TrEMBL record:
GO terms for molecular function: DNA binding. This is Site-specific integrase. InterPro entries: DNA_brk_join_enz, Integrase-like_cat_sf, Integrase_catalytic, Integrase_DNA-bd_sf, Integrase_DNA_bind_dom, Integrase_recombinase_N, Phage_Integrase. Keywords: DNA integration, DNA recombination, DNA-binding. Residues 226-235 have a biased composition (Basic and acidic residues). Residues 216-235 are annotated as: Disordered. The keyword DNA damage does not apply.
Length: 397
């Protein structure tokens, strides 16, 4: 008989459980019935027990987390309370997409993904009518029919791609957990959109125009403040005082984007605790990074100057900017600079393009941009043909 240990389990305790000469069991008390079997090989597996010697395997740790195992065990025990025995198959496999989503995938994603609630909600909204179907009955034709219907209704290709990514990831997790033999949508390709291949960066003339527009905007706002203070003084009112640094967030956010390649969402969420001006490093935290991983950005001299200047008027340890939208200011800036077809996100392309044209290798560019693999970065490999022409000219004898 395996050795039995009874206590309320914790994530740290489960991770720290070491293999022994024989199988032993850690039994959770919340819910009662959840156990973790630890094999001499080091393998750890969850199961739920009830009655006399009856048990059902739930999944392996760490693929199934403690939170996910507790949720799955609670569902099985609820079925036993209602029906006297689990309703699902003896092997514990989810026959339908709905059973898998609600009993396995949802608790796993909610416990492990920062946007877990949104992911589960989106899958149910789009694919809820598949929930009564066996997972192995889902076909590529099913997806194509759904995609066509939604595209004809005005859905954007980007939305279709996100939907596909979510359902493919869910089905692939079922394969990982051996609840499904193969992923029926594994071979389906994302819609290739022109926007995904778009690489828009500033020409030298446009770059100067943008910076000139930023300077002119600052000068205009400072002059307006000065006129306003004079109006207040004339009426014996307290003046607001001259700006000590930047007049608002627009110029520092734009300059920081141009010098770091940060996404707008990252710029909005960085905090002063993420900025080390002495070491000239800014850390993008996993909690708001698109790929869910920390990345450390070296700051060049202009970026350091921008942050140092902004810091004077914004002390503390809160958000550096804390602004989630600057659409009006950005569009007005482009109008003043007479720059067309240039989005805020394109400053990220501009940053990467300038690095590549300066001879920086693609893997370093990938790390700076926070791309999870080199595929996304390869779009910059074929930029600026004039630089290629200059390179081959070096071969002329």
């Amino acid at each position: 008989m395996p050795k039995l240990t009874r206590s309320k389990l914790s994530k740290a305790g489960v991770e720290a459980a070491k293999p022994a000469a024989s199988v032993y069991v850690l039994r959770d008390t919340d819910p009662a019935g959840l156990i973790l079997r630890v094999q001499p090989s080091g393998k750890k597996a969850w199961a739920v027990t009830w009655g006399r010697g009856q048990a059902r395997n739930l999944g392996d740790f760490p693929v199934m987390t403690l939170a996910a195992a507790r949720h799955a065990a609670t569902m099985v025990l609820a079925e036993i309370a209602a029906h006297g025995a689990p309703v699902k198959s003896a092997r514990g496999k989810a026959d339908t997409l709905g059973e898998f989503m609600e009993g396995h995938y949802a608790p796993y994603v909610l416990a492990n993904a920062k946007a877990g609630k949104g992911t589960i909600g989106a899958i149910k909204t789009v694919f809820g009518h598949w929930y009564g179907r066996r997972m192995d009955s889902i076909t590529v034709h099913d997806w194509d029919a759904l995609k066509t219907e939604r595209l004809n209704a005005g859905m954007k290709p980007a939305t279709a791609n996100r939907d596909l990514d979510r359902i493919k990831a869910a089905l692939q997790q079922a394969v990982t957990w051996k609840l499904l033999t193969t992923n029926p949508l594994a071979g389906v390709k994302r819609i290739t959109r022109g926007i995904e291949k778009r690489v828009r960066y500033l020409s030298p003339v446009e770059s100067k125009a943008l910076r000139d527009a930023l300077d002119a905007r600052e000068a205009h706002r400072k002059a307006r403040r000065e006129r306003g203070d004079q109006w207040r003084k004339d009426r014996s009112q307290a003046p607001m005082g001259a700006f000590q640094g930047y007049t608002d967030h627009v110029m520092p956010m734009v300059l920081l984007a141009l010098n770091t390649g940060m996404r707008r969402g990252e710029l909005s969420q960085i905090r002063w605790g993420d900025v080390d001006l002495k070491a000239k490093v800014l850390t993008i935290r996993a909690g708001y990074a698109k790929n869910g991983k920390d990345r450390h950005l070296p700051l060049n001299s202009e970026a350091v100057t921008v942050l140092t200047t902004w810091r004077k008027d914004h002390p503390g340890n809160g958000p550096v900017f804390g602004v989630f939208s600057m659409q009006d200011g950005w569009e007005a800036l482009l109008t003043d600079a007479k720059i067309q077809d240039f989005r805020f996100h394109d400053m990220r392309h501009d940053f990467a393009s300038r690095l590549v044209m300066a001879g920086v290798d693609l893997n370093t560019v990938r790390e700076l941009l926070g791309h999870s693999d080199i595929t996304m970065t390869l779009r910059y490999a074929h930029l600026a043909p004039e630089h290629k022409a200059a390179a081959v000219e070096l071969l002329v004898g």
